[in-house]
Amino acid sequence: MAALSQQPGYEEEKLRKVTELLPCRELQAGFLLSVMGQPQQYSYPSIFIYGHRASGKSHVMQVLFKELELPHATVSCVECVSVASLFEHVLLSFFGYEAASLLPRSPSLSDFVRIYRQQCSRSPAKQTRYIVMEKSELLRDADANLLPALLRLQELVEDNITVILLSEISWDKFRPNTGCFEPLLLHFPDYSKVELQQILSLDRNPSYSAEFYSSYINILLGVFYSVCRDLRELRHLAALNFSKFCEPLAEGKVKETDTHKLWRNIEPHLKKAMQTVYLREVSSHQWEQMQQMEKEAEPLRGLSAHTHVELPYYSKFLLIAAYLASYNPARTDKRFFLKHHGKIRKTHFQKKNEKASNHLLGPKPFPLDRLLAIFYSVVDSRVAPTASIFSQISSLVTLQLLTQVSHDDQLDAPKYKCAVPLDFICAISRTVNFDIVKYLYDFLQ
Amino acid sequence: MKYFGRLRVRRVYRWSEEPLRFNRKLKTFDYRSLAISVDGLPGVTVITTGQHILIEGKDEDSPYVARVMRLFGDESGKQKKASIRWFIRTSEIPTDKLKLLGREPHTQEIFYYQSLNCEEEVDVESILRPVQVKHLDSAAPFPDSDGKDTLYVKLSWDCKAFMEVDSTVVESMSEPALTYSLHPHASRRKPSLPPLLPCSPPAAAPASRAPSCHALPMPDPSIMHRAASGEARYTTEVESMHSATKLSASKCLSAKRRNASSRTPGVRKKLELSSPEKISCVDAVDRLLDEEPEALLAQRLSSSPPQALPLSHRLTPLRKSRRTPTSQYGVPVSPSLVLNRVSVSDINGHTSPSKDDASRAMTPSRRHPKTLRIPTLGVLAEVIDEKSQMMPAATTPRSSKRKSAQLVSDRIRKQLNLLDNHQELNSDCEDEEEFVPSKKELQSSSEGEEESGLESDEVEVVAKRNRRIASGSLTPRSKQHTRSSNRTPQKTPSKKITISTPRTPRHATPSIPSRSLPARQPANVLEEARARLHVSSVPESLPCREQEFQDVYSFVESKIIDGTGGCMYISGVPGTGKTATIHEVMRCLQHAADVDEIPPFHFIEINGMKMTDPHQAYVQILQKLTGEKATADHAAVLLEKRFSNPAPKKKTTVLLVDELDLLWTRKQNVMYNLFDWPTRRHAHLVVLTIANTMDLPERIMINRVASRLGLTRMSFQPYSFKQLQQIITSRLNKVKAFEEDALQLVSRKVAALSGDARRCLDICRRATEICEHSSTTGLVGMCHVMEALNEMFSSAYITAIKWAAVQEQLFLRAVIAEFRRLGLEEATFQQVFVQHQALCRVEGLQPISVSEGMAVCQRLGACRLLLLESSRHGVLQRVRLNVSQDDVLYALKAD
Amino acid sequence: MATRHTASSCFTEIWIEFICPLLQVQKILRERLCHQQLPEKPEGLEAQHKHLLELLKRTAVHGESNSVLIVGPRGAGKTMLLKCVLRDLLEETEAQKNLLQVHLNGLLQTDDRIALKEITRQLHLENVVGDKVFGSFAENLAFLLEALKKGDRSSSRPVLFVLDEFDLFAHHKNQTLLYNLFDVSQSAQAPIAVVGITCRLDVLELLEKRVKSRFSHRQIHLLSSLTSTQYLERVQTQLSLPDHFPDGQFAQDWNDSIKTLCRDKSVGEILQRHFNSSKDFRSLHMLLMLCLSRVSVAKPTIKPIDVQEASRVCFADATANMLRGLSILELCLIIAMKHLNDVYEGEPFNLQMVHNEFKKFLQRKSNSMYNFERPVIMKAFEHLQELELIRPVDGSSAKTQREYRLMRLMLDHSQIVEALQKYPQCPTEWSTAHLDPMQTWICCAATLQEKMFYYPREFLKLGQMKGSCATAYQIHVFHGNQHYSLKQGLTLTWGKKTWQLEWRMIFFFFMFFMDRCCDLSQQKLSLCCVAGVTVRCRKVLH
Description:
The complex is a heterotrimer.
Chain A (H helix, E strand, L loop, with lengths): L11 H10 L4 H11 L9 E6 L5 H12 L3 E5 L6 H13 L1 H5 L7 H14 L6 E6 L11 H6 L1 H5 L3 E7 L16 E5 L4 H10 L7 H15 L6 H21 L7 H17 L8 H11 L18 H15 L5 H5 L20 H4 L4 E2 H11 L8 H12 L3 E3 L10 E4 L3 H10 L14
Helix pairs in contact in A: 1-3, 4-6, 9-10, 10-11, 10-12, 11-12, 14-17, 14-18
Chain B lengths: L1 H5 L4 E5 L5 E3 L4 E4 L1 E6 L5 E5 L3 E4 L8 E11 L5 E10 L5 H7 L7 E5 L7 E3 L3 E4 L1 E4 L14 E8 L4 E3 L2 H4 L14 H5 L19 H7 L5 H23 L1 H15 L5 H10 L1 H16 L2 H10 L7 H4 L1 H11 L8 H15 L5 H31 L5 H5 L7 H25 L4 H17 L7 H17 L3 H11 L6 H8 L24 H9 L12 H16 L4 E7 L5 H17 L6 E7 L8 H11 L5 H13 L7 E7 L10 H8 L8 E7 L4 H5 L2 H7 L3 E4 L4 H11 L8 H14 L3 H18 L7 H12 L3 H6 L3 H17 L4 E2 H15 L6 H13 L3 E3 L9 E4 L3 H10 L1
Helix pairs in contact in B: 6-7, 6-12, 6-14, 7-9, 7-16, 8-23, 9-12, 9-18, 9-19, 10-13, 12-13, 13-14, 14-16, 16-17, 19-23, 21-31, 22-23, 24-25, 26-28, 29-30, 30-31, 30-32, 31-32, 34-35, 34-37
Chain C lengths: L1 H17 L2 H15 L10 H17 L3 E6 L6 H14 L1 H6 L1 E6 L6 H12 L4 E2 L2 E2 L3 H14 L8 E6 L1 H4 L6 H10 L6 E7 L4 H4 L2 H6 L3 E4 L6 H12 L8 H16 L1 H13 L3 H13 L10 H12 L2 H7 L3 H16 L7 H14 L9 H13 L3 E3 L14 E3 L3 H10 L5 H7 L2 H18 L1 H13 L4 E7 L2 E5 L3 E5 L2 E5 L1 H15 L10 E3 L2 E7 L3
Parallel strand pairs in C: 1-6, 1-7, 2-5, 5-6
Antiparallel strand pairs in C: 3-4, 8-9, 10-11, 10-15, 12-13, 14-15
Helix pairs in contact in C: 2-15, 3-4, 6-7, 12-13, 14-16, 15-16, 17-21, 18-19, 23-24, 23-25
């Protein structure tokens, strides 16, 4: 494989610049360049590059084209809502405004190709032109002809042009039903742990020494690597948590070299970060605030924060009832909610195999009256079926703690599902000290 | 005259006496006079043949003027009809045409209207009352009006130009159409009316008549009568021989045929088919005529010298000359005459000398032709009857020394020897091979005209153009097209503006550039055969469809003759000659119409496949009918109006709707209208619809549509192998290119599969090619035909599998294995892939990766050996075979 | 900036011309491989070439209308054939002077309205000004038909209609365009030739019957019957330089090196493999292109290693590549799903089940990794869905909560295995726990049973196998602490399935499994370790 630095047809210093702009991607860039060949040579009509997100696909393209000053148009398929914008963008970046203005109002592919031909007959390509389509998996949702046409665009417009598709999804899931021009497949592997470390270490805070920062990165990766390898995520997290990492240093408790102490300090913090920032449950701004508040030794407010939802008393019972209704088989209600259930032997209720567990299969829909029946038996004091009860049900629906599954048109027998997880309902029932687990069929021993 | 129209008093029409005779052909009784009594009024008006009458028009103020030629009614006596000659009021002539008149028209002036394109039969119910019409010489001034009811005729109008009209048309020979002589008491009976036999004083008699009387070689009454009755037609012929010489042949034939006793359509057909290109030639000329705008032409002629004009305008002399024939007593064509006439009239338009000398300037050029004409008429009549020695008769009048006279006379001579070389043609005019040389000769003779005068080059151009078109438009299709383009309804002259001036907003004329190098003609027998076998080449006759032809023919003919409407539904699988048959029928009918056996009609064709949307049908019909362009909705409205309102001068319209099923819309209003219009009383509309499926009405039509379609249906059966064989042989008549059994094989095979004639011909063509390459004996033999058949009928699947790559074959096997394992005809890629891997083991091949396997699978899917779900399903996508398992196994076993 | 482009590029051009022949090589070969430059004559398609040429010539010279379809799989050289024919046709002045050409492509002209405009444009009819076409759809159609109708066989110029991706035109509304074109070609109007190019063998079934009837059923099939030797030659011709190469000596050396390359054994095998998988030339071009791209100044020839590398790139399993990039958590989830698939014969699962499975596994196996919070797992799960490694079942409505939405795994067993082997620091001890080898054997064996039933030929092979070596071995498999020994009529149960297996089969599939997981030569089975499974084979003496 020809190294990136020695590609004929390009100036040396440019290539050198590219190399340092693309850490850990020399191989791919070099391969790409060798496939693209020299600017004035023909290149393969279409190239398909796939790799995980943040494995540097777009970045490599950008750097190559910008630094080597190749004529190119970079289109992100997310942006172009209609093919019109796509065509316009391409023409614009190759031939300028007047060309783009030639497009009719709702241009078809044939219009685009026609105008392209005109233009490039006026200004023939000295160098290979490149069209880069990011997130090209969206092309599959565009009209069926677009993708095949793009793949053989070189043939259609009779110009030295190469279309480069970037995607996270393998080519097998792209192929249209009647086949098409097969592009050149190229894989961008994701960064290995070492590479990640290397790259992350690049943006270190100058005030600290390199090895200090790299040790930090090391710890960070130790926590996050098994979960996410997304470079962007990791950089974000690294930037967020570095201050926390440095705290003991600032307080002068530990020295830079004392990695173990630092680790003990940061480790739980990072774990917490994984449950909050990483999941975007709190924005990075809130996260920093939380760090401030920790000084006052606040209790951790992670996920459990969400289990505290303030509900009216009866609504809580309604919710519990709903949960029971949707996770217990209807036939077991008798056993659970009838009085004098002592007589009935448990042997009737031997649990079925794993698959039958309702907590795996999810909530079942239940009619309103069943909910109410359970509700009355569950709630200890006598409640009259007032309008308030029903209004509370509807409000639970609006809170999306319940979901109405049956269509709205059948007013007589609405069906509901309970949409809350187990731990949530446990927390709720704890507040009204009601032991829900006793009443759940799945947890019968 | 108003109160007649205003208070719609009921008039009673009845025959005033017994029928004179019974017309077998048309099943009608001829009567002599008709009595109109208005209840509430005592008096009874009697209309006699030869009398001038007023016919109710659009408005009561100016009713149409006409002259009764015949009065007749059917056996039942219900229908009372009158055949008439139309006169036209100045008000009815478009103003820009009035310029051609070159003077102010008199208020009471009317013109003898001689254009074939309005029907000459009216229902007597439309007759208002008699009117007095006087004929004046063109030079004579109008007398101060004696009463408003007297009208004056000077000139005749054929919707292109004004011409002298002979007084006989107007006044004398009161009942030319009828052979019996007037009873003396005819005039006595109805004193209220002006004397019908004005026996115009010789002074008033036009100068041009005198010679015509004594120029007749022998006053043979039969000839006289013939000349009188059939004048229009004969003159038409004579003239048209001048204009487009090739035309004459067919005309002559038709003339002959008319003398002959009535024939069956079948025979007509043969005659007809034997000379298709002549017909098309007529149309070609017609088309040429109708392309130029009128006013434009006039000022062209006046302003610039003819040579300088571009081709399209150089045609104009021809159009003049073509027009004259349609006029009775028109001037025989010589471009010079036409030119100077027009130019003169233009001069009158611009500079105003007294119109006397203008007309004097014309007179010579008018008189001489006449002096020559009448004899030729006689001659013509003779010639057609029996072999004639009339040349001397024709040569007698050639005495005048003037140039124009010479011109005309040698024209006549030419025409005469044309005639008699048609004579020997007529004996065997069926045979086309014989006919061709004479055609050449005709052309040469038409070139012969070129030494006459400065304008000869125009004539030449014209001649050339004619030939081009004649050779070009061979097919019924193009024929139909030209007709539909120029047959435009002409209810009232005012309508004609829209026709004569092309109103297409798009100025571009659609055309394919003509080729720089001439097309090579077929060299050897095989190429000849191939040319003949091409589906496009028009057969001399359309065999194996005689019965269908008869049915359709009689259907349409009857509808046309008794001007009613109707629908017909024709079904049949593709390639069974539906459209072709209809076109044959139309061609024959059109010919029949040209020779006045049946009243003229328009033929319009639309094709559901050739329009972008069902509602375009309206637009196309309207355009072909009137040349107007309109939006679909507007067109629908116009057509609605046109077909529902009564209009006396209306011809029957025959509408062919091909690929009917494509006119289907959700509300079916297009179909509804198409089938509803014919049922209207005044829409003389015959609709022929063609579609592939027999039960189309039952399947897609809602009841109200289906019921209107009616029950006249006809289905074309697929050709049997005998018929196919016959078709081929008739196509390549005399060209010996095929062995008998080869033909039989082809026709049997095709008949067994589809019975599609096109297929059959294509196969034969392919066979000739193969034969050519194999370069064996000249004849196309069994082997070649077999090869062709294999090429066309064998499916490529087997070979495709046979030559597929190893992995692809393996995959197909895996698919079958999986199917058998599951007992289903469907499996997911994953399941198949497991099988595939196992097979790879067994075959000792390196196992392939999933992506590769996917690629293989989707490659098979791309050429539809497999049917796949969309590739998004990845390994879960379901796989089906598009071929039968046996085929696959067979193909795989083969190697 | 543009000026600088031109300057630099023309400089490089000069450089190419005179200094470096290698760039010349690149230039020439790239033209061939990337730009589908036409060959002198279409190899292996002479007959079709002749046929088509004759056909078009008759149209151009005699004005005989025709219609023909060129059918063949992708990359079989359909377009190439047509282009060659046109090139040869236009060499004759007679044809060249007359013939008008209209090129349409089903990909571009997606409906008849666009197609008609394009035709009018290419024919330069009168209603075209510049490249604007006036008139509505209906008017355009009428106009075109009019124009064609005006023409006639002898006088007007023949028109050649080329419809690429023909099958797409058959999907237009009512197939109006096709009907009219074919109709013209069957009636005495302006002579036209309609040439359709498609890769669908069933294209005729797409045509409506009246359209079909008007099409003269001429088809030219490009089903290449080329052998592997021809394939090799093709490769050689594709790579070797033409005689007019400026630097003769270099060309000589290059061609020799190519010869030696093609003679090389490994290269031969690789090419054979390509040939087996597909015969189309585009994929070949891709391979050669990759080889060519590895030629540099330092290494001015193509070496076998290059070919191997190239084919490795071509044959790489994309999905396995993607799997390798997953985080450990995601991988574990996938394995859990795999296990669920195996237990409940590929029924769909939801996140809850997967999570459950995963937890069970964590309890059972080493505490090497701590328990993840559910939302974290959820995030991983969704990432997998974005990568389309799992796919929601079509029926499952969006109303159900995410964790209960039913999913399917879109991975094949082999892919997972492959990924696990290549996976860096793969936590084998628990990943393999789910990939019990016996499973794989058993399902394979099951398939084999049918195969033996249906394919007597393979059964025979197995018989031979039995005769040769099967008897010679008795196999013991130690997996963890279980110990299966495969003897006559062994019964195995896994999940709900039970098989009565012939040990011969199992032996066969044992071998199959062995060299599938780690490729070792079939015969000498020694001690080997496959994903935590120890296999010992002892020679049994009778």
